[in-house]
Design goal:
Elements lengths: L13 H12 L5 E5 L20 H8 L5 E5 L4 H8 L11 E4 L4 E4 L4 E3 L16 E2 L22 H4 L22
């Protein structure tokens, strides 16, 4: 009789094989993270129309109780990924975490809320209609105060740097042969 690993693809690299072996040997210590667009949801022409594949949520719900944690990481606002993924209130996903804006926001299935550090001049505010709350108060601020602390240097918003503008591609010269498919 075959094991449940018979249907798993064989990783192409030694590091991949070692990683899979570690997950299978100690699943209770594994953290599995998945990208939303292109992994859990197909790439579509209009990103607002992207939804999780019908089999994605049941697969996550089946694996989540067997591992330490399951996370969805996305460049989208966390609340949008939760809505488009259909993750809220799913039995088995009560410990799911969705990291939006590549970790600058966090949706936790236990609370059903999105949290993020307060925006600073260096970091853009959260997307409109995203239920974001700050979980940190400024040092010395009274409890419940509206004064919030800036993100620490270890938060994604504080680490964000500007990328130099890309160089435009040169147009083919008139003497270049035509491109073929």
């Amino acid at each position: 009789m075959g094991s449940h690993t018979d249907s798993l693809p064989t990783p192409a690299t030694p590091a991949g094989r070692d990683g899979l072996d570690a997950i299978l040997a100690r699943p209770e210590r594994a953290v599995l993270a998945f990208d939303f667009d292109g992994t859990l949801a197909p790439i579509v022409p209009d990103p607002d129309q992207a939804r999780a594949h019908p089999d994605a949520v049941p697969a996550l719900a089946a694996i989540a109780p067997k591992v330490a944690s399951v996370a969805v990481v996305t460049g989208r606002p966390a609340g949008v990924a939760v809505r488009h993924g259909g993750f809220a209130g799913v039995p088995g996903l009560d410990h799911l975490v969705v990291l939006g804006h590549y970790g600058a926001e966090r949706w936790d299935a236990r609370t059903g809320t999105v949290t993020a550090p307060a925006p600073t001049p260096e970091s853009p505010p959260s997307a409109p209609n995203s239920p974001v709350t700050s979980t940190r108060s400024a040092p010395g601020a009274a409890p419940g105060s509206r004064r919030r602390a800036a993100p620490s240097p270890s938060t994604p918003a504080a680490r964000r740097t500007r990328r130099p503008p890309s160089k435009p591609c040169a147009a083919p010269s008139p003497s270049s042969p035509p491109a073929t498919a």
